[in-house]
Every structure is written in C-alpha cells, then in structure tokens.
Amino acid sequence: MIDLAGQPARNADDARLVLLGLACALRFEARALVHIERITSELVDLSGTDGGPEPSLIPLIARRLLPATSSASNALLKLASDPGNASSVSAWAARQLQRNSAGDSLPSLPAWVQLLSDDTFAYTAPPELIRRIATDVGAMTLFGTRPAPPAPALTKHLAAVLRFWLFCCQKDDDLDLYCPLQRALTFLVPGQMSDDSVAWVLRHQRPDGRFSAQELSLAIYRRGQPGFDLAGDAYLPLTVASVWTLASMS
Amino acid sequence: MTPRPTAGDIRRIEAASLEWVDQNFGHFKPQLSADAKRVGFVTKAAAELAVVCAVASTAAPGTSGAPYRRLARRIWEEIFRDDAVQDHMLASPAEVPSLGFYGSMRQCGFDDLRYRDELLQLLASGYLAAIERPPSSELDFLYSLRVAGFDASAPDTVYRRSMLAHHPSPSTLTTEDVYTMTHAIFFTTDFGRCTPAFFSSADREYFASALPLLTGYYLRIKDWDLTAELLIALSATGVRPPVFSVGWEILSQAQNTDGSYSGPTEGRPADQTPSDLEWIAFRNDYHTTLAVLLALLTAAPA
Asked: Model ipTM?
C-alpha cells in the first residue's frame, strides 16, 4: 500500500488514482507536490520514465486503469457499492468501465439522463447526484476519448447544465465539486478550455504548492474534529482533484 | 416534473400570501412592538408593505386591485396616521424610510399635509440629501422623492456610480451585492413600469447574462427572497430567459401552507426573545412573502 503524506490509500485503486493525479501534477506544476514529502518510486514509474511529456491524463488513465480488467474494475464496483464512501464512483460508471475493459457493448444510459428533460432539474438536483453525474460523464466518454452516447441536443443541454453548476461552485467556492464538474465538461465537449476556469482553479494553489479552499471553515471544522487530518483529508484530495482537472483542460 | 403554474395557481398563491399578511397585520404596527429595539425593523416592514400596495395601485389592468386597496387603507388608518409612528419617522429619517413610506401612501391615494410639511422642512434643511448613502440607496432616495411629489434630479449619474453599472462578475457577488443590484433596477425602472434611456447596450448585455445566472443560483439554494427580487429584475429589464418560467414553477411549489414564503435565515442576528415564535416567524418570512407578492404584481408568468 502506498503511503502519501502519511495517509495510507484505502485500496489499490484509490492509490492508483491518487498517483495518476500526482503524476499529472508532476508534469503540470511541480510546486503542487512540495507538500507531499514521500513520493515513492511507484509514482515515478506511473508518470512515465521516458522523459516524453504526457499529452494529458486521459490516455494515462485509459491505459493504466481500464486494461486492469479484473482488479481495477472489480474494485470500482466494490467502491460503487459503498454509498458512504465519498470517493465512490456510481454503479453505472463502474459497470461502464468494466464493460469497456471487457470489450462489451455500452450499458444503457444512466437513469439521470431522463431527468435532464425536466426544466427544473438543474436547480433542484442534490449535490450528491451532481457529483455522480460528473463521474458518469467521465465513464460515458471514457474520460473524453470518445463522444458521449446521448444525442447531440442532449449533450448540448447537459453541457449547459454543467456550466451552470460550475458557476454555482464558483460562487460557493466549492473547489471539491468544481473539479469533477469541470473535468466532465471537458470530457463532454472536447477541446473546450476556458482561461477563466484554469485561472479559478489556479487561484486555489497556496505558496507551498497544495490546493485548498474555504480554509477558515476547514480550520473551524478541524477544531471540533480532532481526528480530522487537514493534509490527508482536505489538501491531498483537493490537490489531486485540481491538478487532474488542470491537466485535463490543458 | 414540476407543473407550470396556471393563472389559477398564481391567483391562489397571491390570495394565500395576502391572507398571511392580513393574519399578521399586527406585526406590521411599530406602535405594537413588544420591544423598542424592533421599532425600526417593523417600521421598515410597514413601509415595504406600503410599496406593494403602491405598485398594485398602478399595476396592469386585470390585476386584482381591491385587496390591495383595502390593505392600503388599513396601513394608512392603523399605521401611517398614528402620531407616535409619524413622530418616530420624522425624528429618525436616516434609519427608517420616512420619505418612501409617505411616497407609497401618496401613490395609493392618501396624503397627510402636516406630515408633508414636516418632510418639506427636513428637505429644506438639507439634511435628507446630506445623509451619506451608497448609490443604490441614493437611487431609492431619488425614487422616493419622485413618488412623494418632490423635485428630484435624474438618476442617470447616480446609476453610473452603482455596482450594477460596473458589470461585476456574477460569481464574485455577495448576497448583499445582489440586493443592491436588484434594488438599483427597481428604482431606475419604477419596478418595470418604465425603461430608462440611460441603460446602455453594455448594460443590457450584462442584464441578459448575469441576471439569469444569479436567478438560477438563488433558486438552487432555495433563497426565495432573492429569487423573487431577481424575477422582478428580469422582467423589469425585459429579459425572459428559460429560468424565468422555471423560477415561477419552483416558486409556486415553495409557498408555506399559511401563505408565507420562508425567508433566508443565514446571517440573521440572534433574537432577544427567542421564545416569541410568532414574532420570529414574522421577522424571518415577511420580506420574502412581500417580495413574492411584488413579483406577482410586476413579473407574473405569462
């Protein structure tokens, strides 16, 4: 098990995703790694040792995660079955990834696609569902490597909804939700890059390299939760999410 | 799927909100305040209720005006004409809307020449104009002068100094900022009854891009107060994006069974007498209920 910033990853897939994010960080912005004290040789292996720049994280994920048919996708399914796990991917996304890795045809679209036809959906969808949609879009598009299955009109509508949610995240300074949503938008509408989005994510990088948001709230929360580890529970996931997002937009 | 509100739904929402106002009318009376510290707050609430009636008095034909006329008469007889209330308003015009309340009553067809003379003296002293105000409050002052029948300068130069005219990025705005912007629109457009010639094409582009986003955001966080104000702002600036009808769909489902609309509670100071639940409910919800009534009068869905 890989140990990052003193925090053991929960399982092999978590560790792999974290390392992919960090590998990306290494390419994108070395400063992001300053606060990670122990980077193992596995990280160097995953980031590629040939010295050539990785064009983006997407093919890296596709190559590293999807071919691992048994371990990776089964672990994803296991994660998906744990609703209490904040990093859990949705069951639909897990099935999608598993089928793809096995060469099977696409599963039917996730249930929330039906909800898009409701005009009020963008304004009433709960945050957990929004996060799941972001995950599912990643799976639907195989992390931006192929067009989304929905019809073009639906894709356009979904992109507009994602943009609206991104605006809400900006207003709430919710970097944690912003990152997966921005990645989903980038996967859905390939080639789209907003300087404002990049600037907004980058604004959250601190001088020591970590990414964080709502520091005052975190500090207050930490006072009431002695077991809460800022570096492992907040900075690390936000840093990984941020650099992955920046890489996917570059 | 949320059903689109029909004309009948809208009338029912309006009637229920008016019924809530009627049931809570005592809370709008500053002279009945249980705590002297509440007097300023309650006077402001009464003045805002008078604004609703004033807007209704000039609302589009077909609007049910009779309940508002009855309500205006009640405000006039039971609140505005009360000597103690008038003394308080004239003694503290920087703290309560002494001028605006009078202007609204006058729009409803009521006038009090003694009170008007007192206002004239305050105006002549230069005090009312000298009170330091941000541009959105200055626009309120100019609007109040106009509806009260006093000379008022054109609002264009004040508008240019307002936050709204500077077209700030919507994602950076605080809730207070958004209130200053909706109010700037209310007072420059007379709640949508006129179209200011000083709105530039850049202003209009900003309204068309920023107001729908903000409306959607406040709908998402269930802030019915700013949702209602933004629906008025959209209508007053001639912007009718999809979120306008969606906003009404959601708002029509959000009314409490007693006819009120729950107000935002974040940031409210702790009450001195938390055991007075009726008062707390009034304090939290009256503004939002009036904002929805105002929206029904000025920006009802087609």
From this structure: 0.88
